[in-house]
Specification:
Layout: H1 2-13, E1 24-28, H2 53-62, E2 68-72, H3 82-92, E3 98-103, H4 108-119, E4 126-131, H5 136-143, H6 148-160, E5 165-173, H7 181-191, H8 197-200, E6 201-205, H9 223-237, H10 245-255, H11 257-263, E7 276-279, E8 284-286, E9 296-297, H12 305-309, H13 312-323, H14 332-340, H15 343-347
Parallel strand pairs: 1-2, 1-7, 2-3, 3-4, 4-5, 5-6
Antiparallel strand pairs: 7-8, 8-9
Helix pairs in contact: 2-3, 3-4, 4-6, 9-10
Amino acid sequence: MIADIKLLNRLLLSNIIRLPFPYKLSFGVTYKCNLRCQMCFIWKKKGSPELSAREIDLFFKRSNDFSWVGLTGGEVFLRDDLPEIAESIIANCKNLCVLHFPTNGFLTDKILGNTHAIIGLKPRRLFVTISIDGPPHIHDKIRGRNGSWSRAMDTFKGLMKIKKVEPYLSMTLSHSNLGMIDETISSIKKVYKGFDPKERMNFNIFQRSSHYFENVDMEYPDVELLKSNIRRAMEVLELDKGTNIKSYLQKNYLTRCPQYLSDFRSPLPCKALSASCYLDPSGDIYPCGVYGKRIGNVKGYDFSLRELWEKKEVKRLYHDCKRGNCPGCWTPCDAYQSINANLPKLFL
């Protein structure tokens, strides 16, 4: 309860000031990936040194005031020490409210085993998001590996059986799956009876990034067709009827996607380097997963984020992001913080 109150206070405070420490960390634990996705070239990245489990533990000992940690990749479950990393986060971040992993779901047995182990560490909330990008034939084509759809669904079904885990399916609307929302949901319902997209599905839109996805040269999907798919996603999720936090965030995210698509700028003042930041596998800190402006490496700051956070150039970069002087993005990893930090613009 105390942790929830602190997170709420920080959400509200982010509407007024630059936070003295971010409440959300997006941490890319690895860039290794076992799939070959068409809309993302992380899997093409050359091997680079990753922070060891010991170094990650040092970081979370010295940078431990996060309320929300999202571990991402690559494929996070390719790190054999993922439960050890989760243990460092849970043990050191005493006010942690949310721990989140996205996964492609291919390594079903390993994912379920590691999730059981992590649940045993008693995180307050554990969300696991499995990517589903279309019906089976479309998903497998997008993901570049046969059988990836059935593996992902096996993982989802297995996670649904684990108590105290909240699994979701996430569909990224991209070049290759526009017009496929209804067929995708129909395919899911064939293998998981009673599937309710309102409860267990999220949507987001294709993004480009120089330092993360490495796909800046990729042509953007047809904007008008993408807008029509966003409208369909909102209908499927029945967001006008939703009253929970998931519906609130998805509604405010999706309703602002068309504005983003008009000029590819954030529809709301960005809160990167106030509410959140991105830590890459080697220890480099960036404002987010899209803006490739490296601001330092945690190794050079004794694995503490606080000193780096207070540098003048970092504060200056925060104001640049807030004014939109950045590449521009609208991805849930960062948009949700901006939504929560612009409450007057949402309700007035």
